[in-house]
From TrEMBL:
Span of domain Major facilitator superfamily (MFS) profile: 28-419
TM segment ranges: 29-54, 66-87, 99-121, 190-212, 238-261, 273-293, 305-324, 330-352, 364-388, 394-417
InterPro entries per the UniProt record, alphabetical: MFS, MFS_dom, MFS_trans_sf
Protein name: Macrolide resistance MFS transporter Mrx(A)
Pfam families documented for this protein: MFS_1
PANTHER family to which the protein is assigned, alphabetical: INTEGRAL MEMBRANE EFFLUX PROTEIN-RELATED, MAJOR FACILITATOR SUPERFAMILY ASSOCIATED DOMAIN-CONTAINING PROTEIN
Main location: membrane
Entry's localization field: Cell membrane
Membrane topology term: Multi-pass membrane protein
Amino acid sequence: MTLAEPAPLPRAGVGSFPARAPERARGPLASVLVANAVSGCGTTMTLMAIPWFVLQTTGSATQTGLVAAIEAVGLVLSSVLGGPLVGRFGAKRVSMASDLVAAVAVGLIPLLHAANGLPIWQLVVLAMVLGLSRAPGDTARYSMLPGLTELAGTTMERAASGYDGAGRATRMLGGPLAGSLIALTGPPQVLVLDAVTFLFSAMVIAVGVRGLDTERPERRHYFAELREGLAYLRSDRLIAAIAGMIAVTNALDSATITVLMPSYARDVLHSSVALGMIIGVFGACALTGTLVYGWLGHRIHQRRLLFTTAFILVGPVRLLIYTVDPGLPAILLVVAVAGFAAGSINPLLAVVEYGRIPVHIRSTVIGAIGACALVGMPLGALLGGLAVETWEVHLTFAAGGLIYLCATLCPLVFPIWRQMDAR
């Protein structure tokens, strides 16, 4: 399938609706946006609370990186293996189950900590379960989007921007909220609230997305569909190039979010509230950038140039600012610009992916893309922790920024990326 071909609607059970709905219905799409927003808020709070919890209880950046790496391993595994589950059991069921498992995994951390002090091996196990729970739900909600967009009678650019923007809006609030609550009550209490957000997300999908899985999902052979999805990923060079580039940048982002920024906030800014402000400003400006792309995205023809410019601002520029200790106001200014640029990246990629990937293997290919994109995250988190303790945080930020720059220049160097501009 080329970008010039209109993407057909998904099959029943994988986020599908009749090709011609008798009337426009925006309620199911709105429900998925709300669920994605609430789940994103919980994920943001977890990303802050767990590293801070490990730093507070162990004082070790290495153990913090280890826990983050284990969670990322679970995320990668579930990205590869979870895609066919969406086609087999239905997007709605998989989304709900994913949030319920995440709620249990996060909720057990403060419970076990209060009971027995939570040895590191128990935290590692729960981090693995949490990682395994995340990708199937993300893939399921992502797979619902084309059919819900058709039913709502809107454009793919606007729906993808709304989907990404809804998540960014609550991540914008989740960062400052988590930072303030960590300072006021401590990480365990924040994790209890995280568990509640995942339960609420599951409830929204259960109540608001009706009729999505009323037909029996197609019972294709699990490994046959998995092989077909992976074969497509190997055959589409642009999608493979996107996944490869994101693998590198996500590894760097994993180290930055889970180790470098908490360490910088603790050792240089001396405040979890400052860390929450940084995440909140990034989220607010990313939301603005997402909304602007939703408004103007269908008019933009130079996707490759927009993609590259946005990534340079999000990666090298944002990381290198921490090497000079400019103070919190300057950091927030740079983070604001980077956040605005980041707002266009995910919806732009969604438009490209939905336009190229055949519908019958969409959830499997999306899962495979996610796995490829996330494969470097465990190593990034682990190496980030080791680098902070070996080199200290400023030199680690400098090395990460230079590697990020090399990765983000690829779309300007290799011809295959020109296909991003095709329609």
